[in-house]
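To assess whether ligand presence alters the predicted conformation, the chain was also submitted together with pyridoxal-5'-phosphate. Input:
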Amino acid sequence: MWAVSSTDTRHSRLVTMTMTASSSEPPTRTERTSQARLQMTPDAMRAFGYRIVDQLVQHATELPGAPVLRLPDAAGAALPTSLPQTGVGLPAALDLLDRHVWQAMMHLDHPRFFGFVPGPSNFVSAMADALVAGLNPFAGTWLEASGCAQVELITIDWLRQICGLPDGAGGHFVTGGSAANLTGLAIARRIRLDDDMTDAVVYCSDQTHASVQRALRLLGFPRHQLRTLESDAGFQLSLAELARAVAADRQAGLRPFCVVANAGTTNTGAVDPLPALADLCEREGLWLHIDGAYGAAAVLTDEGKRLLRGLERADSLALDPHKWLFQPYECGTILVRDARWLRQTFAMHAEYLEDTGQPGGETNFFEEGLQLTRAFRALKLWLSLQVFGIAAFRAATAHGMGLAALAEAALRATPPWEVVAPGALGIIAFRYAPQELGAAATDALNQALVHAMVEEGFAFVSSTALRGRTVLRMCTINPRTTDDDIRGTVRRLGAHARRLQRSL
Ligand SMILES: Cc1ncc(COP(=O)(O)O)c(C=O)c1O
């Protein structure tokens, strides 16, 4: 429905406007030259751009009525694999995309995509990305794009203010949460350990995102220098366990170094006891890295602010605008308590970069993070905040929290649904648990529910394991999700569960 077919009149227009690679006439010299320059005529560019915009608008407007996904099928395999020598032309290339690529994807911006962490995105930011791709600023140095750098500094400071970090804190745009965790922990290693990791121990709960473990491995921490502590009944890092582990490690002559706390776990949205953890870190001289990639944005709301008290005490804080701040991929950020730490960790010098040195202390982002060449990722967040205002973002975030509460109420009202973790921070974990079914059968039934929903295509929920048991999760952060979407999803889950149970 939303794939534009190759017989579309806009396509025909494009055929005549582009370089006729698909026509039977051999290309003229002018056409050949333009092609070698990877160039299109102004009219062809316009037609192409309008075609893409039309497709995106169609996507945005028709999405709620469309299936949330299509099952992966053999379509992908039909994509030609040979390297095009002369080019197939724009219409044919777009047609390949329509038929084989866009048909075979989940829509993480669909109002009934509740699995993993949705990517609700927004049109203003999508257009900002188009602008960035078209103008192609080099956001690594002040010299090459000082205007972009100013936007980036301002936007980082907005995030700093939102999260309550003190003046003097700073940050950096990265690709996403995994990169933010890696960057934050690299800064911690540099600033606290001067990169000497000998006997330095990191602490986190068993609910911590897997990217943290991977980041530590990449940074050279051996596995035995990470303590993954069993979380408590609320899936939070246990303060008592942590204090015990730190004391035991000190006793053993090791160097407790860093606590990784969660501000919204992926599994349940749980928030670790941040104020108490910050106190402990202060007392013990430990670095506090908070992974708020998913949940930190909820600080915009009153309820989120209450749940996320202590966020402002992070030494480093990962926050992903491409999750709950509604940005298209990729958009992650790392905030740090002292902006100077970025440079102290990432500065590099090379004779071919001498010209980028500027008087007056302007920011060269390549010295504050891993990338030299970097995209202007801040623009999408900046532009959408300019256009909609923070009040709209606050309302959109609050809406997601309200939806999780609604889902929780709907599940509690219809046994044998069991709420395993309440929908505090936009994520609810639950399972269908008829008393008469044993543990293994209950797990299998809940797993089968994910597949049943996938086959139906109305909504997507995903599963995870908590305390060794299979549970379902709904992450309800899309501001375009309606109450009916939630109720309808819970109703259909129930219908599938009853059918599956009958078939056992
Ligand atoms: C809590 C948390 N941390 C880190 C990540 C990794 O973020 P990304 O997928 O953007 O790399 C995620 C992703 O869902 C997450 O939920």
